[in-house]
Specification:
The complex is a heterodimer of chains A (375) and B (129).
Chain A: H1 2-6, E1 12-17, E2 20-26, H2 27-34, H3 39-43, E3 58-60, H4 65-75, H5 77-81, E4 84-88, E5 91-96, H6 98-141, E6 145-150, E7 158-165, E8 168-176, H7 180-201, H8 206-220, E9 236-245, E10 250-256, E11 259-263, E12 271-274, E13 280-281, E14 294-297, E15 303-307, H9 309-312, E16 315-316, E17 321-322, H10 324-334, H11 340-355, E18 364-370
Parallel strand pairs in A: 3-4
Antiparallel strand pairs in A: 1-2, 4-5, 6-18, 7-8, 8-9, 9-10, 9-13, 10-14, 11-12, 11-15, 15-18, 16-17
Chain B: E1 4-6, E2 14-18, E3 23-30, H1 35-51, E4 57-67, H2 69-87, E5 91-99, H3 103-115, E6 120-126
Parallel strand pairs in B: 3-4, 4-5, 5-6
Antiparallel strand pairs in B: 1-2, 2-3
The chains are: A alpha+beta (375), B alpha/beta (129).
Protein name (chain B): Fe-S oxidoreductase
InterPro entries (chain B): SiaC (IPR018530)
Domain SiaC family regulatory phosphoprotein (chain B): 6-121
Chain lengths: 375, 129
């Protein structure tokens, strides 16, 4: 009793019998018992065993924090409130408290998170460096164009690729399987396959390039049709791949599960140019699949908008449904006379309004440009 | 066969495959971090069930407001298995639920209908008050 009175912070007192812990006395229970009439008189000279918990949680000092946390939670409130006894080789070594344990677990959690986030942040430096050349090319080549690249997490599965030549320019907006770290891995694979294909075939034939990237991804990830029933990877990408021929103002487009939104000057509505429904890569896309080449005749002032499904499928609005293509078409139409960067800002604002309190479902990339007078 | 029930989480749908009643349903949203892991066992159990079905009428209710591209791949595996079950002499009724104004999900359903012609497809737009 004197001990509890002297040490006001002491929540529990271990009872030890020749070095071995035999129980734990809880301050609250002990004091409320002693304060009952005559208890003090009867019990104060007695052994402390009368009020102790005979089955406290006892753990060896060698147990790791994670195992201890699970054990303490399993043991229930008692272990967290009264604390637990720590032994070393079966002999009493000390007492642990729930609050201390919480603090240690929280610190460990924070340290682990920090480590993972530092790793991902550095991965983001690499991913952004890979994209920078393309973005610079696009900004230097196109007078009225804008690109939004927003990974859902710090890194993502969307990427873009631009190449400029004197006779025109090449562009791709692609969405690889997944997001986050696995998505970012895929962008490196797909982007280097595309780079190699362009080195080999030049940038003017999008259909040929998609076919080449398809074979490249399949080979790199070991997804060769029919040879393996259960391949490890079934990954690939959706992509819009195009070559703009400056002298003819023709846009050659090959699409894998993606579409172009095109609005010509004076046209009543936004025209959709759909790609094929087959994805690039993935086990079920044939090694020799050919994505069709579509030719769109552009005019000076034609607007082209292309996006990954992150924008189209974002859930939101009053009924928590997808943003959809219709809203994109309406917004392009309503902003048709504004520069591409303003159209994209309006698109971002509309998406953000739609999303409201919902969280972002996927990575989002969209690109808008206006066809210029040929030089 | 025992019913397969998986409760919904924010990123994965509720799966309720009542094999005894030949009533299979998936509802919610689907964007788990590892879709192959989430759907692997579901597809395995479905295939085991379908292997034992003969001349059975199987009802499938799908009500998904969002699914990411890796989930799409997995859903296709499910529809492929169902499509084959029809070839094996069963009947598969697919009710495709979506909000009336949700063009994105409607469009996906229409594509399914084209890709899996053996499945009796019913578009079920849900009107909102």
């Amino acid at each position: 009793m004197e001990i509890f009175a002297k040490y006001r912070d002491l929540t529990s007192l271990p009872v030890i019998d020749s070095g071995k812990p035999i129980g734990l006395i809880n301050r609250g229970i002990f004091l409320s018992q002693m304060n009952k009439p005559f208890h003090k008189e009867v019990y104060s000279r007695k052994s402390s065993i009368a009020f102790m918990d005979k089955e406290p949680l006892v753990v060896e000092a060698s147990m790791d924090i994670e195992a201890l946390t699970f054990k303490a939670v399993e043991y229930g409130e008692k272990a967290l409130g009264d604390g637990f006894i720590i032994t070393q080789g079966g002999r009493f070594a000390g007492i642990g408290h729930g609050l201390q344990l919480m603090r240690v677990v929280a610190d460990m959690q924070a340290a682990r998170n920090r480590q993972i986030m530092h790793s991902i942040e550095y991965a983001s430096v690499i991913q952004r460096s890979m994209l920078r050349t393309s973005r610079d090319t696009m900004l230097h080549t196109l007078k009225d164009a804008d690109l939004v690249w927003e990974p859902r997490d710090v890194v993502g599965g969307d990427f873009y690729y631009f190449v400029a030549r004197s006779d025109g320019w090449f562009g791709t907006v692609a969405d690889c399987t997944g997001h986050g770290v696995p998505g970012a891995f895929m962008t490196l694979i797909a982007s280097s396959c595309l780079g190699q294909a362009i080195d080999q075939h030049g940038p003017t034939d999008p259909s040929l390039l998609l076919g080449s990237v398809n074979r490249g991804i399949k080979q790199m990830l070991g997804q060769v049709n029919g040879q393996d029933e259960t391949p490890e990877s079934d990954d690939g990408m959706d992509a819009a791949c195009f070559w703009y021929d400056a002298s003819t103002r023709r846009l050659l487009f090959a699409g894998a599960k993606s579409s172009l939104f095109v609005l010509h000057p004076g046209a009543d509505g936004v025209e959709m140019v759909d790609g094929d429904r087959k994805c690039v890569g993935y086990v079920d896309s044939g090694l020799d699949f050919t994505w069709q080449q579509r030719v769109v005749q552009m005019q000076t002032g034609s607007l082209v908008f292309v996006t990954t499904d992150g924008l189209i499928d974002q859930v939101g609005g009053p009924k928590s449904i997808a943003f959809g293509k219709r809203r994109i078409r309406d917004l392009i139409l309503a902003n048709r006379d504004r520069p591409a960067h303003e159209i994209n800002r309006a698109m971002q604002a509309a998406m953000s309004d739609w999303q409201g309190p919902n969280h972002r479902r996927d990575d989002v990339t969209f690109f808008c440009f206006r066809v210029q007078e040929p030089q | 066969m025992e019913t397969l029930y998986i409760a919904a989480t924010p990123s994965s749908p509720e799966v309720n495959f009542d094999f005894g009643q030949h009533q299979l349903s998936i509802r919610g949203e689907s964007y788990p971090e590892n879709a192959a892991a989430f759907y692997g066992d579901i597809i395995k159990r479905l295939r085991e069930y379908l292997a034992n079905c003969t001349k059975t009428r199987i009802n499938v209710d799908i009500s998904l407001a969002y699914f990411n591209s890796s989930s799409t791949k997995m859903l296709f595996n499910i529809f492929e298995a169902l499509n084959s079950a029809v070839d094996a002499g069963n009947e598969v009724i697919l009710n495709w639920y979506h909000y009336e104004e949700d063009d994105t999900i409607l469009e996906f359903g229409q594509e399914l209908h084209v890709d899996f012609p053996e499945i009796s497809f019913f578009d079920r737009p849900v009107k909102t008050a």
